[in-house]
Amino acid sequence: MKPPAEPEQGHPAVSVCLQVLTKRADFVRASHALRQGTSGIHLQARKRSEGEAGGIRVGYTCSKKVGNAVARNRAKRRLREAARLVLPVHGKEGWDYVLVGRHDVTAKLPFDTLVADLRRALRKVHG
Is the pTM of this model over 0.85? Predict the structure, then answer.
């Protein structure tokens, strides 16, 4: 059995960088902060105050408008994978991000487009 390979340059180990938001209060705080919509996702972002948790934290949500349970779960899986690829590189330390799935789009949009939408939304929020 081989040990796992080292992460590529520019792609740090995700388990070290991303923490998942679980408390409703964190989602509500993010919803009242910065927002940026794209065709595939809606991004909510908030810079945490000093003394709060460190690292990059991310949450995912899809309402029933996205579709039935199968469509919502598929959309959330795609959002998780896009965040895993993009946030360690383009996200900022000390920020909370909430990725919101869009009705009939997030589950069906080509994955490369979804990743590009997340990058664009992050650039607009931080720029």
Answer: no
